[in-house]
Every structure is written in C-alpha cells, then in structure tokens.
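Re: uridine-diphosphate-N-acetylglucosamine structure - here you go.
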Amino acid sequence: MDKIRIRGGRPLSGEIVIGGAKNAGLPLMAAGLLTDERLTLTNVPDLVDIHTMAALLAQHGVAVERPLAGGRELSIGGPISNTEAPYDIVRKMRASVLVLGPLMARMGHARVSLPGGCAIGTRPVDLHFKGLEQMGATIRLDGGYAQAEAPQGLHGATIVFPFPSVGATENLLMAASLADGRTVLANAAREPEITDLAECLLAMGARIEGVGTDRLTVDGVRRLHAATHAIVPDRIETGTYACAAAITGGEVHLRGARMDHLAALVRALDEAGVEVVERPGGVTVRRTGRLHGADVMTEVYPGFPTDMQAQYMALMCVSDGAAMVTETIFENRFMHVPELNRMGARINVHGASAIVRGVPALSGAPVMATDLRASVSLVLAGLAARGETVVNRVYHLDRGYEAVEQKLAACGADIERLPG
Ligand code: UD1
C-alpha cells in the first residue's frame, strides 16, 4: 500500500487548482439513473470514489463513458438492466446508497446492500428508508440487503426530517423528481452539493422549488431528459488547502475556489489570524503572523463543516493559546487525535469536544488514519512538523483528494508518494 513521506517546515507558495466536488459528483452520477438519455457531467474529479460509483452504475447496466481519455467529462446513459447494489461495492463506499432513490423512481424495485458502520460512527440510513416508505415503498431487510418495492410506483409525500441529512435529502430529491404528485422535503439539508444536484435535476426537466433552502417542493414529472452539468468546485478540497497554506505560514492561490461556500471556515480562519481574500478566478490564503486559537463547532451547512474538522484541528495544534473543537454531526470523529498527539500535539477529548492547546512545533512521525479527512489532517500536520512524517494507508486520501502530493509539491512542499 502506498505511503506519503513529508519533510516539514516549508511555507507553501504558489497556485493550486481546485477540482469538482466529490460529494456533488457522487449523487450527480446516481442521478444519471433517472433517465435513459445521456447525462453529461463536466469538471469531474479523478478520484477512487468516482471510479467506484462508475463501477456501480455499470453493473446496473448503464453505460458510463469518459468521451475524452483523461478528460474531465463523464457521460452516463442507457437502460437499467439490474437493480441490485452489491455488498462488495457498497461496503467500499457508503454513498452507493444514493442509487436507491433513483432505482426506486425508475424501476419500482431495488435491492441495495446496507452500508454498515464506518470509521466515523454508526451512520444509519433509516431516514432514506423512512422517506421512501412515506412515498409508498415497502422496505424489508433480507440477508444484509434492503429489499425495496413499490409496485404502484412512488407517490408524493410531505417528509419532515427530524434533523437534516445530506444523503437522505439527495436520495429523496431524486426519487421525488419522478414520483407521482408533490413531495415536500422539510428541514432538508442545504449543502452546496444538494443545490448542485437540484440544479442538474432542473436542467434534466425536474420541477423543484426552494433550491438552496431547507424546504424543497418537488412536483414529479413523468420523465427526465438529457442534460450537461458542470460539477461545483470542491469546498472541502478548498478548505483543506487553505489550512495547508495557513499551517505552513505561506501564501497560496486556490484557482476555481468559491469563497461563498466556505463562510464559516473563513470566519474561523480570520479569527485565527489567516487572511482569506477573493481574487479573480479564485481565493488567496495567506498567513504572515502567528496563529491564534479559535473555537469551532461543526454544524449542518452553512455552519462549520464536519468534513473540515480534522484539518482545522491540525492547524490549531500549532497556534498560540487554545481552541475548543466540538463535533456535533458524527459521534466518533476524533480518530485523528491520538495520531496528532503522537506528533507532539496537546489535545484532550471530552465527549464531543476536543481541547487543543497549541505547541510551538510538531515533530514528524509515522502515522495513519482510518478515514479520508483524518488522513489529510495528518498530511497538514506533516507539512508543519519538524523532520519526517510518513502517512500510511494512503488509499483513504485517494478516495477524495486528486494528486494531493503533486499539488502540494508544486507549491514547494517536500512531499512524495512511496509506492507500497
Ligand atoms: C455526507 C457527506 C459526508 C459529510 C456528511 C455531513 C457525501 C457523499 N458524504 O454524508 O462527507 O461528512 O454529509 O456533512 O456527501 N443519519 C441518520 N440517519 C440517516 C442518515 C443520516 O441518523 O438515515 C445521521 C448520520 O449518522 C449523521 C448525521 O445524520 O450523524 C448526518 O449525516 P448525513 O448528512 O446523512 O451524512 P452523509 O450523507 O452520510
């Protein structure tokens, strides 16, 4: 298994191109199941998770093509011949469950493996199921699979989420687009990736009101049609490289980044002494002075993203003073803490909060993490640490960061991939 070796202590300087958002690309690909006609996505990142979703769609019988070799375009189209999402794919990537809504809407039945637990918590999918049941589906569990049926098709319903779930909102939004009648999704999540999905569905002929709000009203249509859609820039990749610039005391221009999707992070960085300014074509991040401790609490959008918690915590490890980092979305998302502490950080976890007491410097160490954002937080720590850090289990990084070592090396980091 590949590793990444970093020799820390070099301020980053230069430009990093921000790719399309993984978490928008995955539901958008699933939306390709809503029509036999061709859905063309542009600005598609080249990531393991995107390949996994392509493999899942292909085994549903749909043609998934990259028209230009090595290009950023992906087209999806053709009839569905198989409605089973097998355990072997779903266990690799939880977002596979996003095919459930489209398969039910198109075919009236689906058999989707339950994703099970993951490194950051139990992560149930009950809200996806309850919503589909309200729309007329029956779902029973059979051998680790959800067997869903709606012989009469799905109908509209008013679904009030007990709390906003990104995946459940996306799944039900897709299902509702082809359901009979009106569906209202109340207390829905409103992450930019959901807005991106809604905009693509609108381009395919869906009728959706309230896009960007926590109340989506969908009038089902009989069929959706071909469309071309550019995937929104990845706000988490943007935030991660913003923290990389900040932790090394450098200056980096993030080309293609959208600052309006990162308001909560920008606020925290500002308090911590990091400058983030919108410039033509992107966002520039710079730190010249000392870092200060600044508290954050993860929340649903537009609050501070849970997917930025680990990277921000790495930054706080080398600040003056202390910061409290509170995680409210997932119950077990501090797996990076012991590894950061092995690098000399001073972090104590109390329940859902971590107190980070800044130290003057971290020291390099061999480390590994069990999820994507935790892994990249160790890369950030390595960039700032004295000496050498080796991050093991790089496959987590490859799920969500394209060419991470190349992008950082181009800005002056001493970082390389060691093939394993
Ligand atoms: C998505 C993102 C993930 C991000 C998360 C929160 C993708 C592919 N993944 O994950 O990177 O960290 O949003 O911003 O877009 N929950 C339930 N029942 C459900 C569904 C969710 O209890 O049926 C709980 C989860 O366990 C969690 C919370 O709701 O505690 C939020 O999860 P959710 O917003 O659904 O996250 P995902 O869509 O899985």
